[in-house]
C-alpha cells in the first residue's frame, strides 16, 4: 500500500504492532527515543530510529503513567506534537492507555484534524489468542477520521467496535482493566476471609465456579504489573469519590500487607 505509517513507541506493545503493520504497509517506520529500544527493534527486523519521519498515519503506543499521585500523559503529548509538526493532515491513532479526555484535549491544542482512539488489547501471556489482531473499540474525532481509521484497521485485519466518541474508547480500556482489578480484589478478600475462618479458599473457588455465571479469579501475590494498578487510578481520575474503586485499592493494600506478614513469619 502507498501510505506511509509510523509507530511511535517500541516497547512491549509497539514492537508487535509495528511488526504487524509492516506486513501490510511496506513503508512502515518505528520510532523511539530509547537507543536500547531501537537496538532491540532492529534485531527483530524493524526499520527503526530515534529520528521521526513524515508519515500519513502515526500510531502512538508509548507508555503512560500514574506517578506522584497524578496521571502522566506527557509522552502522549510529546508524540502528538512531533507528529503534527511533520504532517498536520496525518491520521493520529492512539493505542496507548489514556485518561478520559486526553485525545480531544490534544487535538484541540495541536489542531489535529484526523484522530482515532483504538486501545490495544494485546496480552503477552497468550499472544496467539490475544495479539494485535483482535476486536478493538474505536472512537474518532469526526466522520472523516472514522473513515480513515476504518480503512486503516480493516487493511490490518483488525475488527472494530465503533463508539460515538474518543472518550468512550478511552474509558473503555480503563473499565476493562478495572473490572479485572475488582475481580482479583474480591478473590483476595475472600482468601483472607477463608484464612480467618479455617476454610480452604481453593476448594471454595472451585465450588462456586461450577455455577454458570461465576468466574472467581485466583488470589496470588497481590495486584501488580504495569497496567491494572495504573488503569484503576486513571478511571478514578474521572470520579475521585468512587467508593468501590477506592475500596478495591485499599483491599489490595490490606491483602498485600497480610501476605507480607505471613511470609515474614514463615521465614
Describe this structure in words.
By secondary structure, this protein is of the alpha/beta class. Helices cover 48% and strands 13% of the residues. It is built from 9 helices and 10 strands. Strands 3-2-1-4-7-8-9-10 form an 8-stranded mixed beta sheet, sandwiched between helices. α6 (166-196) packs across α9 (243-266). The longest helix is centred in the last third of the chain and has 31 residues, at 166-196. It is elongated, with a radius of gyration of 21 Å. The model has no long low-confidence stretch (mean pLDDT 95).
Descriptive keywords:
267 residues, alpha/beta, eight-stranded mixed beta sheet, two-stranded antiparallel sheet, 9 helices, 10 strands
Describe the secondary structure blueprint for this structure.
Blueprint: E1 5-8, H1 14-24, E2 28-31, H2 35-43, E3 48-49, E4 57-60, E5 65-67, E6 70-72, H3 74-86, E7 91-94, H4 102-109, E8 114-117, E9 136-140, H5 143-155, E10 160-162, H6 166-196, H7 201-208, H8 228-237, H9 243-266
Parallel strand pairs: 1-2, 1-4, 2-3, 4-7, 7-8, 9-10
Antiparallel strand pairs: 5-6, 8-9
Helix pairs in contact: 6-8, 6-9
